[in-house]
Design brief:
The chain is mainly α. It contains 5 helices and no strands. The protein has one domain. It is globular, with a radius of gyration of 17 Å.
């Protein structure tokens, strides 16, 4: 039971972070400023400052992919510890590795595309 409760809290935090990344941009920020990649802050910064800088370091497309992957992983994490009748859609446990490969591939390819766009 405690495992399920812990998994629900972790899934909720992961889903909230994913939705935070999916939010298009802050009010008053133009699209040109939104796609401008910025470097990460130094180690001495507080956590909210570092998270905001991490979000700004990604393009809009990469933020969308990362946010969707986080929400997807949160959903399936909650589904795996819940009774089968609670969640109608879930990847069978024996095929969870396919979900993992798909999420990792999406994240890696999105960051590679960002790097190629920025350096190229």
């Amino acid at each position: 039971m405690w495992l399920a409760i812990t998994a629900y809290f972790i899934a909720a935090a992961l889903a909230a972070a994913g939705v935070w990344l999916l939010i298009d941009r802050s009010p008053g920020v133009s699209r040109a400023d939104d796609d401008d990649h910025q470097e990460m802050p130094e180690e001495g910064q507080s956590l909210p400052v570092r998270l905001a800088a991490w979000r700004r370091s990604m393009s809009l497309t990469t933020r969308t992919v990362t946010g969707l992957c986080m929400v997807l992983v949160a959903y399936h994490s909650a589904a795996y510890v819940s009774p089968d009748s609670w969640f109608g859609l879930k990847v069978p446990v024996g095929r969870a590795w396919l979900l993992g490969i798909g999420v990792v591939a999406a994240l890696v390819l999105s960051r590679v595309a960002d790097r190629l766009e920025r350096d190229g």
